[in-house]
Amino acid sequence: xxxxxxxxxxxxxxxxxxxxxxxFDAVTTxxxxxxxxxKGKWLILFSHPADFTPVCTTExxxxxxxxxxxxxxxxDLLGLSIDSKYAHIAWVRSxxxxxxxxxxxxxxxxxxxxxxxxxxxxxxxxxxxSAVRATFIIDPEGILRAMxxxxxxxxxxxxxxxxxxxxxxxxxxNKVATPENWKPGEPVIVPPPQTTEAADARKGEGFEYTDWxxxxxxx
Length: 219
Fold this sequence. Notes:
With 219 residues, the protein is α+β, with helices and mostly antiparallel strands. It has 2 domains: 3-157, Glutaredoxin (3-Layer(aba) Sandwich); 175-219, 2-Layer Sandwich (Antioxidant, Horf6, Chain A, domain 2), CATH 3.30.1020. The protein has helices at 3-12, 54-65, 67-72, 85-99, 114-118, 158-174, 196-202; strands at residues 25-28, 31-34, 42-47, 75-81, 107-109, 133-138, 144-150, 188-189, 208-211, 214-217. A hairpin with a 2-residue loop joins strand 1 and strand 2 (31-34). It is elongated, with a radius of gyration of 20 Å. Mean pLDDT is 91; it is low at 1-11.
């Protein structure tokens, strides 16, 4: 592999779920931040194409308004774009002045695109170097647990990331899965039996039984 093709491969490689999230040591609007700073907490790292753009502004305001809800889930927020920290600071001040919303979480300055490339935030063959709307959920052990990508033209649902963190935490704590659009308080899915003997026994185990492979329970 030539040096040129190796660089291209590194830029186009993607992080993988259930493996350690790519490490970073980055300048932010709140000073230097590394991935290890967030050990013991859940982290939502999210990129946006550019400061002072309307769709991104709506997303940042929604993240900011949900800041306390994420904090209650032991979850920190960390934004990123390839703009400078000075652009970030000016944008955050503009959001507060124009919309009355205080953005309390840090934003990574990624002029070198080092973090964006490590996380696959720059799409191969894209017309420009803007980071797409990518969102990464990292657990307290630094393991990447979820990745969600949106197009430039459409904003994310911040409520969905709240729901997803709650679902992940519930699955980890109770060794269960959660159904479509699950919300706290609703029944969860019991892992399917792994042997024919266990499948035969499932109906009599006291769960909300539909079939041997599909049972729910309340927590």
